[in-house]
Design brief:
Length: 195
């Protein structure tokens, strides 16, 4: 399988880490977002929406949207709970990640860290909205080790990369000790070096 992704992107890292964890062989093609590379006709042929990550399988079929990709790769594995309710809770976090978390935490981090924008250029609502999001996660993780059930699932996989990068967006992770402990647990589970 060919993975087209940008290693600075949390959406892309989810896909890489899922493939790594499941020992799925892949070739990584680095495509830099925010530089126009995703707008080339060659890339648009892979993903007409012009976004990474996108995966091309050996039979030529392609799949975009990070959470759709990790769900497909992890089908039948322990990363997806067998219990229907736990599986639905995992989906609850996956949808929340894309609709509420990524659009705040990842967007502010991209503006600060990747685009070098100043506070004056950035939507001022992103910082307080992100703080509410991180507080909500910290509260949830104060009572449990993983987002769903008693084991690492795709809910953790999806929420990990941009949460781990949150400091780069001006969010102070030291204010959220349960999140920090969860990040260390995830790094241990996935074999990632600490940032
Ligand atoms: N919902 C999509 C979002 C993908 C996305 O926003 N990708 C960004 C990079 S993280 C991108 O490729 N943007 C196009 C560009 O900036 O060139 C997913 O989860 O895969």
């Amino acid at each position: 399988m060919q993975i087209y992704g940008d290693d600075r992107s949390g959406n892309c890292l989810k896909v890489r880490w899922t493939a790594e964890h499941l020992n799925l062989p892949y070739v990584w093609h680095e495509v830099l977002a925010l530089t126009g590379q995703t707008a080339s006709p060659e890339f648009r042929a892979l993903n007409p929406f012009g976004q990474v990550p996108v995966v091309r399988f050996d039979d030529g079929r392609t799949l975009a949207q990070s959470n759709a990709i990790i769900l497909y790769l992890a089908e039948g594995s322990s990363l997806i709970p067998a219990d229907a309710f736990d599986r639905a809770k995992m989906f609850e976090w996956l949808f929340w990640e894309q609709y509420s978390h990524e659009v705040v935490i990842a967007v502010r981090r991209a503006k600060v860290h990747l685009l070098g924008q100043t506070d004056a250029e950035i939507d001022p609502s992103l910082l307080p909205r992100g703080q509410v999001i991180l507080s909500r996660m910290n509260e949830h993780l104060s009572e449990r080790d993983w987002f769903v059930g008693t084991a690492f699932t795709l809910a953790d996989m999806a929420l990990l990369p941009y949460t781990r990068f949150a400091d780069q967006g001006g969010f102070e992770l030291h204010r959220y000790p349960a999140i920090q402990a969860w990040i260390r647990r995830c790094e241990g589970f996935l074999g990632l070096p600490a940032l």
